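Hi there, hope your week has been kind to you so far. Would you mind checking whether the tokens look sensible for this chain? I owe you a coffee for this, so here goes:
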Amino acid sequence: MKKYSKYFLAVTCIFTLALSAGSFIKADAANAPAVAPGQPVDLTYAAEKAVPAVVHIRFVQNSKTQTVDVESSPFDDFFGDFFGFGQGQGQGQGGSRKQQVQTPKREATGSGVIISSDGYIVTNNHVVNGADELTVTLNDNREFSARIIGTDPTSDLALIKINGKDLPTLPIGDSDKLKVGEWVIAVGNPFNLNSTVTAGIVSAKARSLYANGVESFIQTDAAINAGNSGGALVNTQGELVGINAMLYSQTGSYSGYGFAIPTSIMNKVVEDLKKYGTVQRAVLGITGGDVINYINAQKENGKNVDLGTNEGIYVDSLQDDGAASAAGIQKGDVITGVDGKNVTKMAELQEILAKKRPGDKITISYLHNKKKESKTVTLKNTQGNTNVVKTADLDVLGASFAPISAEKKEQLNLNYGLEVLKVGKGAFKNAGINQGLIILTANDTPLKTIDDLQDIVKKASTSKDPVITIKGIWPTGKRSYYAVQVSE
């Protein structure tokens, strides 16, 4: 549940569970019916093109055994010690003990869009995140198992793949050309009602909902409900222009507006996931927001400010090693344009940056003390350089691991951990970690399986600070802490 700025939204935005996809194949849209201004709009062509390319996705997360902390009582301690299974589990009154619980099996459904005839499908990250099984059903009822190629939580997009040939696809349109008031259709599987088409208009562009790290939503009044997420937003020419992602509602079901991720953002994300396995995100290195929001906030505090404009992005702070700081932009400046195009709000700036990669240059127009300035900026990645960011694997650590044995669990009074079996050339050796260490946590996350460590390495390798903090214990009982750098 996300709480939005009082200057824009007064209710909660609810993520809908659904999938969406698009097509990188430029299908012929020349047969789309031309509509004269002021004439009724025929959406049948768009529906006929879209429905075969939008799929139903079934998400399954299997039941798992997890060790959790539960409150203990003196009775737990007494009976545990009496029957010989305490082993230090009880911590006395007010303490806690470890207990294994079985999580329930989870199932959900959503939508997706086939973007290539060989089976690449675009959907939302929140539709596939944590899935053990993904089943894709086409409009003609054919079923396929799908695998995840890559995900991008920052934009809430994901790319999955099925093994198929000559699959139906949607041509990808230019979301930048969409106009407010233009008719669109939303295609998906709301409430498991497969191949549902709803219609509405584009009611706004470049909306910020403060739900994702990167967002510039297309707002539409086409009905979107649970199951539409990841589905297609299609223009009257039968072209994919957005991936339906969420709804704005006070009830949890459609009663207002739907929001879609524009293809201008989707294209870059999918291309990077296919090529690099992770998104090469270019950042300016600033924090801030819409000028009007800043002005209104100052008014509430009894202050009147004059920035020379009521539109643009107010720069509230800068990263020391960021692109904007290197170019001389300062706190209090107002960004008004990029590459000659006016920028009136943060969402528009995010959409422009979402198309760029580290190392790309852009020209920023801004006001400094209400005077117009212009600077050429070299964009950087989240780690403060222009290198390609790659998702690291366990190999970067240069070590091998195994879950701690039952004997050592008993000896050291542990419930979990990974033992370092061998250390070679790599990040562990550089950090001074040797064979025999039992790793308990990495970045404050308990390590019960090797997959746990793998997930942490992947996340850390693409973060702003690509370092893992290791907490471990030696067979002697001595505890140690290490900082392990997982990228250059």
Observations:
- Confidence is low (pLDDT under 50) at residues 1-30, 78-93.
- DSSP finds ten helices and 29 strands in the chain.
- The longest strand covers residues 196-207.
